[in-house]
Amino acid sequence: MTDKDALDALPGELLMWILIVSEVLVFGAGLTVFLSVRITDPDGFAEAQDMLDRTAAGINTIVLITSGFLAALANALRQGGARTKARFCLVAAALLGVVFLWIKGAEFASKAASGIVWDTHVLFNFYFMLTGFHAAHVAAGVVLLLLVAWRDHVDNIEDATAFWHMVDLIWVLLFPVIYLLQ
Amino acid sequence: MTHRSLYIAWALLVALSFGSTALSASGIWAQWPGVAGVAVMALAWQKARIILADYMGLQRAPRWRRGFDVCLTGLCLLMLALYAAPLVL
């Protein structure tokens, strides 16, 4: 297999994969630093972590993976020529992205109402930074999904849904590390 | 990518997510935090692999899939080691 064949085997645009790998590395580094800092104060981290809303984060996981499913289905439908169904799936995926952001917003608002801010404990520093940065990617992804539902070229949909799956991929790594590992 | 395989991938992801959430609510963390940590990270690793293979289409590019699997496994093992450090130190 030549280098060109190897690159051709990769689904979608190479540039999108470079972006995906870069983003996973950035979040991976953030989570690695989070766990490294946790070594210095595991009890304090456990106490702070108990103030996080694991149920809301669990619901958001289901919301995001369902949205990812709809995006993947839209991609398959568009490649099969079913444009209307693909558009419907893309809009539904974007709406679930909005649901994710609404739940995340409610989570942040609840923390603020309880007087929990970024410097309450170092865990919240990472929590607000990493989940906030991830939420910004979700917002960007929602816009992308709606854009490609409108301009529904096969390549556009493939790239936008790859971005959306990256957001999904990051969340399934971020969720257990920030919320679950006690 | 067939629609059927996407439905299966989604159902597996939902089941694994419920597994993670159920573990977080169980009393296992107080008794065996190491075991619970390994289980939670294993579930996350498997979810990430499904997203890469089925949602992102790497199933059609086995060499790339193996490469991503190696990197993902390395990252998950690193995070697991950092989680376990306070338990063994």
TrEMBL record, chain A:
<protein>
    <submittedName>
        <fullName>Nitric oxide reductase E protein</fullName>
    </submittedName>
</protein>
<feature type="transmembrane region" description="Helical">
    <location>
        <begin position="162"/>
        <end position="181"/>
    </location>
</feature>
<dbReference type="InterPro" id="IPR024791">
    <property type="entry name" value="Cyt_c/ubiquinol_Oxase_su3"/>
</dbReference>
<dbReference type="GO" id="GO:0019646">
    <property type="term" value="P:aerobic electron transport chain"/>
</dbReference>
<dbReference type="Pfam" id="PF00510">
    <property type="entry name" value="COX3"/>
</dbReference>
<feature type="transmembrane region" description="Helical">
    <location>
        <begin position="57"/>
        <end position="76"/>
    </location>
</feature>
<dbReference type="InterPro" id="IPR013833">
    <property type="entry name" value="Cyt_c_oxidase_su3_a-hlx"/>
</dbReference>
<dbReference type="GO" id="GO:0004129">
    <property type="term" value="F:cytochrome-c oxidase activity"/>
</dbReference>
<feature type="transmembrane region" description="Helical">
    <location>
        <begin position="14"/>
        <end position="37"/>
    </location>
</feature>
<keyword id="KW-1133">Transmembrane helix</keyword>
<dbReference type="GO" id="GO:0005886">
    <property type="term" value="C:plasma membrane"/>
</dbReference>
<dbReference type="InterPro" id="IPR000298">
    <property type="entry name" value="Cyt_c_oxidase-like_su3"/>
</dbReference>
<keyword id="KW-0472">Membrane</keyword>
<feature type="transmembrane region" description="Helical">
    <location>
        <begin position="88"/>
        <end position="106"/>
    </location>
</feature>
<feature type="transmembrane region" description="Helical">
    <location>
        <begin position="126"/>
        <end position="150"/>
    </location>
</feature>
<dbReference type="InterPro" id="IPR035973">
    <property type="entry name" value="Cyt_c_oxidase_su3-like_sf"/>
</dbReference>
<keyword id="KW-0812">Transmembrane</keyword>
<comment type="similarity">
    <text>Belongs to the cytochrome c oxidase subunit 3 family.</text>
</comment>
<feature type="domain" description="Heme-copper oxidase subunit III family profile">
    <location>
        <begin position="16"/>
        <end position="182"/>
    </location>
</feature>
UniProtKB/TrEMBL annotation, chain B:
<keyword id="KW-0812">Transmembrane</keyword>
<dbReference type="Pfam" id="PF03626">
    <property type="entry name" value="COX4_pro"/>
</dbReference>
<keyword id="KW-0472">Membrane</keyword>
<keyword id="KW-1003">Cell membrane</keyword>
<protein>
    <recommendedName>
        <fullName>Nitric oxide reductase F protein</fullName>
    </recommendedName>
</protein>
<feature type="transmembrane region" description="Helical">
    <location>
        <begin position="34"/>
        <end position="55"/>
    </location>
</feature>
<dbReference type="InterPro" id="IPR005171">
    <property type="entry name" value="Cyt_c_oxidase_su4_prok"/>
</dbReference>
<keyword id="KW-1133">Transmembrane helix</keyword>
<feature type="transmembrane region" description="Helical">
    <location>
        <begin position="67"/>
        <end position="85"/>
    </location>
</feature>
<dbReference type="GO" id="GO:0005886">
    <property type="term" value="C:plasma membrane"/>
</dbReference>
